[in-house]
Amino acid sequence: MSFLNTLRQWDEAVTCVDREDLSEALRIFLSIDEPNSKISFDIGCLHLLNRDLDAAEKAFDCSIRKDEHLAVAFFQRGITFYKRERYEESLSDFQHAFRTLRGNQLIDYKALGLRYKLYACEVLHNMALAEAQLGNWEKAQENLVKALDYKTEAKLNIIDRALQSTLKQKLFKPVEFPSKMLFKPNKHYVAELEKKDYLGKAKVVASVVPQDQFSGFAPLQPQVKDGPTRPKEPEVLRALEGEPHTVLFEFVPETSDELAVVPGNIVFVLQKGDDNWASVVFNERRGLVPYNYLERLEISLASKQNGGIPKSPTREPPARPERKQGVARGNSSGDTQLQDAQSTDNSCIIKVRFTFNFAVSVPSGSPYAMLIEKISKKLNLPSTAITLSVTSETTAQSVINANTEMESVWSCASGRRITLWCHTKEQTDGKPQTEIHLVALHSYESSNPEDLNFHQGDTITFLSRVNQDWWEGHCNGNTGIFPASFVEEVPVNDQ
Q: Which of 6, 86, 147, 251 could, after both became Cys, cross-link 81 (CB 3.0–4.6 A)?
């Protein structure tokens, strides 16, 4: 079957799911001769909805065979094994999904056509449940304690509730994937499937101008009696998706789903939520921007002739609106649950800016010793080699240490969130350690933007240790992470 036929059937099946015709969608999916890993995943999800666990397991097997790095497929097969009470196999799949996350807090599959985020804390939650079903309550508690490092406010304290259940040796419900949420084909490819008529249909007309004997195919511009010539409005921006707005203030994102913009940028608003956040498109990228940072842009010929877009104002930007996370807009019961969860959770999210950014969670008002212990454990470095500061520059006023009054630090938190800067200095016998260089034993190529690509024999500057299997380094002007087994350290004499 050709790629175009596969794409067409894939799009038809997803459309059937959107209109709740699941049986027809499954029939179309099963008629595809050579399904790829995403289509096999979709088939498995539909089998799960039909409670056909044998067929679901086979479909997820096929998806994993064709893409062994698809963490969400391991997660779904783990759910399938759990429902079949095959807890050891379920635990193994959840562990594999967690390893595929490679220490990240989540994987966002939006770029691959699936509007879903797989959170590391949810994977650890299900690992703990499988351990509990096997009677390993201590291991279950260890997994949930580990999940606290990956927990986000959007998870509504499911980790805390599960931990309380394990302390009483009581089972809890697994976190399940919404099975009606499927991988969808690339919309740009689907748009190319439609047949386009570039010439249009010919139409015979007669002229409306008196004493004009013209009769034939329609001219490019219709003739209007005594009509003034009038230039057309520009159609370029009108044809784009969304409503055009101009950016009034600079916006710096704090999460991966927010979008960085500066004054004067033109964005296209796709949807405005009740929480004053707008989903926009800018430079072919989608993200969230506060709507009160934008101003609707009226595009007309007059504005184009008078110099185009007006200059942005110089007043201070408005306050950042609160985000509604983890609940659907307009769901009052969900809003109540979120407020209750936040009121009982006294933790503060610390966003740490390092050579790579990461986050840790500590109780608000914690002493310096607890904070530095969390960060040093995350970086796998001694606390003496770490310097924290409340600004990007390490000055006597900004540095945080054991003598700092932590009340002044926690007072800078906004919405139980605070950003700190981290600087490290490896030391040996009180002297700075020399720069570590590595040589690539094998070539490494990856499509992930956070990875570092290099060729066999390249020299890599070591920056930090992400975990036992992954390091961060710098090579050929790029910075990223790479497998530690692909390199070896250059001896000091050779350096």
A: 86
